[in-house]
Write a sequence for this structure.
């Protein structure tokens, strides 16, 4: 709560033209933004795209738009900053992966997520000791996780990734998806149930 109060105060000062506050505001959220970029950047881009560059580009763009943001505040600050990074990653994904390679990228067409983050999500949501996925090879588990996520409605798998990988608060997810906090909680529980069912019984994917 104190962090939110401090952030709101910095935004207020930015609106008054305080450049020191602007620098502090952006730097305060750098680590969190870097964690998000590393979690969501497609592994296939790592040979061409440095996550640190994405973070820096985002912060530079945010610095240019901060005065406008401080007056309009369309979202809470971190969700706004995260959206700038997300838009940049979508651009990179389309440019490097999807252009001319649609058949290659089809299995991840609706979910930007690194392989390591996909595994982290599975570990958090599925008891591998009591589940068949505990016996899968790493490559097979990757494939099954991405397939399971793509079986979910886009908003539902985004809620899972935002909450369990990015560790966004429910209020932040609600602001990004333009739904109520209650809807976030309800859709999260439903998505967890569906994901667990699909991971344990992938053969049922076409038989709801």
């Amino acid at each position: 709560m104190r962090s939110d109060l401090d952030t709101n105060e910095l935004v207020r000062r930015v609106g008054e033209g305080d450049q020191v506050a602007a620098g502090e505001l952006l730097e305060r959220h750098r680590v969190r933004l870097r964690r998000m970029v590393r979690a969501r950047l497609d592994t296939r881009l790592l040979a061409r795209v440095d996550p640190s560059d994405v973070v820096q580009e985002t912060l530079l763009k945010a610095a240019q738009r901060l005065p406008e943001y401080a007056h309009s505040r369309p979202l809470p600050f971190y969700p706004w900053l995260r959206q700038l990074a997300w838009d940049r990653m979508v651009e990179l994904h389309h440019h490097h992966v999807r252009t001319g390679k649609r058949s290659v990228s089809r299995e991840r067409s609706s979910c930007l997520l690194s392989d390591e983050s996909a595994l982290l999500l599975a570990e958090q949501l599925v008891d591998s000791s009591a589940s068949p996925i505990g016996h899968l090879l790493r490559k097979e588990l990757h494939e099954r996780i991405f397939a399971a996520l793509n079986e979910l409605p886009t908003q539902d798998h985004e809620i899972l990734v935002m909450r369990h990988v990015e560790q966004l608060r429910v209020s932040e997810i609600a602001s990004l998806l333009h739904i109520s906090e209650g809807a976030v909680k309800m859709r999260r529980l439903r998505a967890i149930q569906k994901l667990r069912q699909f991971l344990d019984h992938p053969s049922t994917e076409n038989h709801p």
Q: What stands out?
A: The chain has two domains: 1-108, 110-208. The mean pLDDT is 83.
